[in-house]
Amino acid sequence: MDLWLVTLLNALVWGLLWALLALGLSLIYGTLGALNLAHGAFYMLGALVSWALMPLVSFWGALVVAPGLVGLMGLGLARLLWGTREYDPLMALLLTFGMMLILQQLATIFLQTTTGQLRHSVSPPLRWPIPVGDRFYEGYRLIGAAIAGVVLTGFWGLWSRTRWGCALRAVRDNRELARVVGIPVLRAQAGAFGLGAALAALAGALVGPITREISSTMGIEVVLVSVLIAVVGGLGSLGGALAVAFFYSFAENLLTALADPTLARAGALLLIGMILLIRPQGLGGAS
């Protein structure tokens, strides 16, 4: 019984973290109409930058500063790479892939220079063991999940209750009509790219102390899973991405309690992939 309770807690924690990642990716696709292959690199940078800033501003300060810096970098890169040109899906795919390779190499150089290795261990900012029957659950995981939940709730309010969110929804639904009514489409798209990068960076900063390790390649597997979650959720559908992120997390963690973690992840990916057999347009896609 204790094992299953811990498994459910892990599923909740990782569900919120996967939701942060999938939300950022789906937001970018919804407004730009293109997948951001650099999403995993932003996730990695969030973990790396927060670790580098910890001696200066503490871990909790780094949780605020690191996503902000990565978000501003994403905003700047979007403006630099596209400028005043319309976002072309194929070109965006190629540019974000190149961006991912460059950021990964820069992170590798940074880690080798500062630590002399490609991976670096990270300790949680606090232990706070919570008794769960005969076991103890790390309290930091619940704090990280709570932070992710607050950010997701805040984003939902921003998306549904503000003029900026209304503008983004208009760009997602009909760019030409949004341009006609005076919405600066390219600026809105660049802002969405920066916000998506910040969400990915926050997820990375929160995950580092959970996995106890950061590396320059930690975003590769993450972006593949995030893309699948976003596709199954319905590309551009924020609600669909959130639902699939939670379903995937619960499936993976429950299967991990029964089988090898690698097989559990493969099984969870297979389960969410089967949703496409029922709804080829994705869970939140238009019928």
How would you describe this protein?
By secondary structure, the protein is mainly alpha-helical. The protein has one domain: ABC transporter involved in vitamin B12 uptake, BtuC. Helix content is 77%, strand content 5%. It contains eleven helices and four strands. It has helices at residues 2-32, 39-82, 89-115, 139-161, 163-173, 175-180, 185-211, 218-233, 238-256, 261-273, 275-278; strands at residues 119-121, 129-132, 135-138, 213-215. The radius of gyration is 19 Å and the shape is globular.
* Domains, number: 1
Compute the gyration radius: what is it? Answer: 19 Å
What order do the strands of the largest sheet run in, or round the barrel if closed?
Answer: 1-4
Mean pLDDT: 86
Question: What would a concise description of this structure say?
Answer:
The protein has 287 residues and is mainly alpha-helical.
List the helices and strands and how they pair.
Blueprint: H1 2-32, H2 39-82, H3 89-115, E1 119-121, E2 129-132, E3 135-138, H4 139-161, H5 163-173, H6 175-180, H7 185-211, E4 213-215, H8 218-233, H9 238-256, H10 261-273, H11 275-278
Antiparallel strand pairs: 1-4, 2-3
Which key features would you list for this structure?
two-stranded antiparallel sheet, ABC transporter involved in vitamin B12 uptake, BtuC, two-stranded antiparallel ribbon, single chain, 77% helix, 287 residues, globular, mainly alpha
